[in-house]
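User: Teach me something about this protein's shape.
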Amino acid sequence: MILVTGGAGFIGANFVLDWFAQSDEAMMNLDALTYAGNLQSLASLGADKRHIFVQGNIGDSTLVADLLAQNRPRSIIHFAAESHVDRSIHSPEDFIQTNIMGTFRLLEAVRVYWGGLNSEAKQRFRFLHVSTDEVYGSLAKDEPAFSETRRYEPNSPYSASKAASDHLVRAYHHTYGLPVLTTNCSNNYGPYHFPEKLIPLMIMNALAGKPLPVYGDGQQIRDWLYVKDHCSAIRLVLEAGRVGEVYNIGGCNEKPNIEIVQTVCALLDELRPRIDGKSYREQIAYVTDRPGHDRRYAIDASKIEHELGWKPAETFETGIRKTVQWYLDNQGWVSNVQSGAYRTWVEKNYQGRG
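Assistant: First, the predicted structure itself:
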């Protein structure tokens, strides 16, 4: 058995679904089901006995210790995190509690559990920590992409909290010998993405006839990674990565935000045209930039390619088409996650930016 934290979130849910599409090994899925955790994303698993869901917080040391002792997982994949930069600007303490204190308490419980294993199980055990490229800060236009040895320079409460969690994971390896692996990924996109993030927000606002809010000049550059490619990389790192190492995972798709929005508009013009025959581009609205907005991220994924043979299978063109089509085909899922709390958040974040 493996244990996954945050397996009802965007990346976590995609990983869980991908896992059972390729493996019969059982999985315990621990998720607090905060606003971005959604069991409907895992509805296709139904009553699958291989998938054991537990609602709970990684910061609940007693719960985590009991789950470890009772189920004895061979590996842990740690997705659970607060992950939205805008939310971290409005409510930074949530990020400190979950990403730093939660990871610390999880590591403590795992350290005790791992220490009690026999030598063979100890050798086999892995703790894989899923992190972000945002810990590295911002790149100038012509700077080389982030490598695993890049200095940490986080610029938001979110990225600072993830940087702290990365350091804790590293420290537990070097101090206690815990067999850890860390991955730092670029911007993910794909099915089951909570609609506060750029691509699903643009899709849903476009279909609803609402403005498509683009921060600043829209020239912030990100490296876009299709979520199922990310899942395949995590599986590979878990099984073949070198203990104590960091692996950067990128999509090799550097694009400015405005180009992403324009691509979404073009696909919607093709797949779900506006009734009036006009382009969805007419709904694009530039709004005041968010504080401390990093200008460019880019991932150098050569290490994982050279060591483990991984490359993304999707181009941005193939991945974004699949993504837009998924949202068009799954309007029920979107409607169910767009709760009153979500609407209140959107109003709070974008009010006064026009």
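Now, about its shape. The chain has a mean pLDDT of 93. The two ends are 50 Å apart (CA to CA). If you'd like, I can walk through any region in more detail.
User: That's plenty for now, thanks!
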